[in-house]
Design brief:
heterodimer; A: 208 residues; alpha/beta; four-stranded antiparallel sheet; four-stranded parallel sheet; globular; B: 467 residues; five-stranded parallel sheet
């Protein structure tokens, strides 16, 4: 799994609430059998109109956000489907951190599997950061210290954030969680043996 | 005596393999459904790391998102769709996983196939790389959607590392008004709690209204738990559940079935068990519901009006209503029953079961689809299709001018050839009305099968009870 520790970069404000996974990566790009190469399709239908012309008002099309590595988004970000293509396209685009007031559950979990840090801050702070993002080039994000720092009007600013310690550790260490689980395969076998006694019909021989 | 537990607590506790030092739980996964869109990268991951599928016999695969719903003998025209389906076929075969191909009459949408085959049973943990896995909660199974990394984790270990969610009880009180369906109930719930209202929760639906629903209706309710943001939806299993399961190919039989029922009966929430949150909804106040906007919480009664952004409760809400109205091509304060449609989609894992089709046939019988409307009916599985044809429903549909198709996800998410064109307006029994969901620029109004059928007949949104 990808590691995340520190990040410095500029941020793209996406001022829409309930951004769903269909917006993040439309279904026509889900037909791939690979994880890579989805970055160019990120927010495809917000970036291009139906004739394929760039929509200038959309932040991702504005030069000042070229090379950005942070998204600052509205609440309930990533709602809808379970498609991991959403965080894949975000990561492939070069975004490593998202800041929003809240996330949909599956999307939130999927981020951690892909080295993306989803930070939760209150709505007011997020709105303010979206304004700041329009002018401030660099935000520094330090997961270890759980803070965001930036300079605004020659003044050093710091915002701290909370994060589940387990998820923090996974991101910092980039752990292979399948490998870790497989180290405990004897516990899994014990569970199965016991379950087969308690509820034997789950282990029946019927097939279709 | 141990403390009283909820249905969720019991299923959770029954599946703890170990509690890790960091407080997370390794949870055993009893059954895993696999489809072609969210699995190829997981199988690829296994191959790259030299890992095997731990329990192929607990895994069931079928292709549903990309399959054509007509002219199947010609195969899949789109090369990417074709490759995705062929990749699933190969992965299933290499890993000894049962796979129901397009040519098998048992093929269909995973969430319809699982229950039909008796793969889904009470008390189980069930996952699938698909958010509508919550459907299986109708059986009192803890079922939730996962991303592809977790699909790989489940394939390799038959477990997932989880943190327990909070538990919400949604109690539907009173009695439903005539003509109000499971779909109207769940839309009313989402309207009340919002698309993020269930975030961080597993919802248990309770009350006589839920108890009186058929298994199919219960599946419709649990299906859209995800649209309320919940991790999963649950309904306590009962006689209807055993009755549904009896004789299904993968359900236990004979003496074992009786033993299983005893176990399943013990799963119901204990008296005095605590929920983190309780929401009450009065059924009497619900009439047929439709969505007007681009979020499943944009719900209004059929006798209502398109909202006016001027009356929004906040600036943020105002902006989001304006954006939705612009996308939907609707004017504020338009009566809902004056909105004209040119497409109708009846199907999906929400409403693609036999009962849904029977309800549609009652509306369709002796009537005609309005001449400017294209109305398609896509059964949820080959078995649903077969049953409908056995009952002669297909003849009623065709006679009325509906387009009767082969099973799959179809225009619920438009990954196959079935999609809306820009600005087309669709009365749909599916689950999401997001921008572009049914095709770029397409406009979706969610509703029950009866309401969608009535829209096909009238060419506009209408209360089917007035037909």
């Amino acid at each position: 799994m990808e590691k995340f520790n520190k990040l410095t970069g500029n941020a793209i404000p996406i001022r829409i609430t309930n951004v769903d996974t269909d917006m993040i990566i439309p279904k026509q790009f889900l037909k791939t059998i690979k994880r890579t190469g989805l970055g160019e399709y990120l927010f495809f239908e917000l970036k291009f109109d139906q004739d394929g012309n760039k929509i200038d008002s959309f932040a991702l099309n504005q030069d000042q956000y070229n090379g950005a590595s942070i998204l600052i988004a509205g609440k309930n970000f990533g709602c809808g489907s379970s498609r991991e293509h959403a965080p894949w396209s975000i990561a492939d685009y070069g975004i490593k951190c998202i800041i929003a007031p809240s996330y949909a559950d599956i999307f939130y979990n999927n981020c951690f599997k892909n080295g993306i840090l989803p930070i939760i801050l209150d709505e007011e702070t997020v709105a303010k950061l979206q304004d700041t993002a329009e002018n401030t080039l660099n935000f520094n994000i330090d997961l270890q210290k759980q803070n965001i720092t930036y300079v605004e009007n020659n003044e050093q600013k710091e915002i701290t954030f909370e994060i589940d310690p387990v998820k923090k550790k996974c991101l910092i260490e980039g752990l292979d969680d399948i490998g870790l689980t497989l180290n405990k395969s004897s516990s899994i076998s014990d569970f199965e043996n016991n379950q087969a006694k308690e509820t034997p019909w789950l282990y029946g021989s019927k097939t279709i | 005596m141990s403390a009283p537990k909820t249905l969720y607590d019991k299923i959770w506790d029954n599946h703890i393999v170990s509690i890790n030092d960091d407080g997370t739980t390794m949870l055993y996964i009893d059954r895993h459904l696999v489809h072609e869109v969210t699995s190829p990268q997981a199988f690829e991951g296994l191959r790259m790391s030299g890992r095997k599928v731990r329990r192929p016999e607990f895994t069931l695969a079928t292709a549903d998102h990309n399959v054509p719903t007509m002219d199947r003998d010609k195969g899949i025209a789109d090369p990417d769709s074709k490759l995705q389906v062929e990749t699933l076929e190969r992965n299933a075969s290499e890993n000894n996983i049962t796979y129901l191909p397009m040519s098998d009459k048992r093929q269909g949408i995973v969430h319809i196939v699982g229950p039909e085959q008796g793969f889904t049973q009470p008390g189980m943990t069930i996952v699938c790389g698909d958010s509508h896995t919550s459907t299986h909660g109708a059986f009192g199974a803890l079922a939730w959607g996962i991303g592809t990394s977790e699909v790989e984790h489940t394939l390799a270990t038959q477990t997932l590392i989880q943190t327990k969610a909070k538990n919400m009880c949604i109690k539907i009180t009173g009695e439903v008004v005539d003509g109000v369906t499971a779909k109207d109930i769940i839309l009313a719930i989402i309207k009340k709690i919002g698309t993020a209202g269930g975030t961080g929760y597993v919802i248990e639906y309770t009350g006589d209204v839920i108890k009186n629903l058929s298994m199919e209706g219960r599946m419709t309710v649990c299906n859209m738990s995800i649209e309320a943001g919940a991790r999963a939806g649950l309904i306590s299993p009962d006689e209807k559940t055993w009755e549904y399961l009896k004789g299904r190919p993968l359900a236990p039989s004979g003496e074992e079935f009786e033993t299983a029922i005893k176990h399943w009966q013990s799963l119901a929430t204990d008296e005095g068990a605590q929920y983190d949150e309780i929401v009450e909804i009065k059924a009497d106040e619900i009439i047929p519901q439709v969505t007007w906007g681009t979020s499943p919480e944009d719900v209004v009664s059929i006798d209502g009006y398109v909202p006016d952004p001027k009356n929004a409760s906040s600036d943020e809400k105002k902006i989001s209503i304006e954006r939705a109205l612009d996308y939907m091509g609707l004017e504020p304060n338009t009566p809902i029953n004056e909105i004209e449609v040119n497409k109708v989609f009846i199907g999906s894992c929400t409403n693609g079961r036999i009962e849904d089709l029977r309800a549609v046939s009652k509306i369709a019988k002796g009537r005609k689809v309005e001449k400017n409307v294209h109305a398609m009916i896509v059964p949820g599985s080959g078995l649903v299709k077969e049953q409908a044809e056995k009952e002669g429903l297909d003849k009623i549909f065709i006679e009325a001018g509906f387009d009767w198709r082969d099973p799959g996800c179809s225009m619920c998410l438009a990954m196959n050839a079935d999609k809306l064109k820009p600005q087309e307006r669709c009365a749909s029994t599916s689950n999401r009305n997001f921008e572009g969901r049914q095709g770029r620029g397409g406009r979706t109004h969610l509703m029950s099968p009866q309401m969608a059928a009535a829209a096909a007949i009238k060419g506009k949104l209408t209360d089917f009870r007035d037909l």
